[in-house]
Design goal:
mainly alpha, binds fe (ii) ion, single chain
Length: about 140
């Protein structure tokens, strides 16, 4: 049985929603702290915080499903996501250029890495759609 939306409209909805927000904030907090720990050379701390962030992301996904925030049309969602990720590469690179123009060269380099990640996300999602999810359309 799918868990999608089972708490929506029940006495659990508000509590699940609060946890969804808290877990999402936890993802940002732990990944942000992991970056700062790595900057200080505390790689073991950074590694642990990244693992915690992954857990919190998984928890957030659970609560999002429970309260029905996820569209179950996987093909439609991933088709949209693939386009957004691909477009994101150029948009994030534009952000990197702005950062560089303000003299934030190190940040610009890191943002460019993120831009490449977005482009890669688009490519892998498109490949996934072709390989696994759109087979029935052939
Ligand atoms: Fe959690
Ligand atoms: Fe992405």
């Amino acid at each position: 049985m799918s868990l999608l939306g089972i708490t929506k409209g029940t006495d659990l909805e508000n509590e699940v929603e609060r946890y969804l927000k808290a877990e999402s904030q936890g993802v940002v907090m732990y990944y942000g702290l992991a970056r700062l720990a790595a900057e200080k050379g505390l790689d073991d701390v950074a590694d642990l915080l990244i693992k915690l962030a992954g857990d919190e992301a998984r928890h957030a996904g659970l609560y999002a499903v429970l309260n029905g925030h996820i569209n179950q049309d996987i093909i439609a969602v991933l088709t949209h996501a693939a386009k957004a990720e691909t477009a994101g590469r150029e948009q994030i690179n534009a952000l990197a250029n702005k950062a560089r123009s303000l003299g934030f060269d190190e940040a610009a380099c890191e943002i460019e890495v993120a831009a490449e990640d977005e482009g890669r996300h688009g490519i892998v999602l498109e490949a996934l759609l072709k390989k696994h999810l759109l087979v029935s359309d052939k």
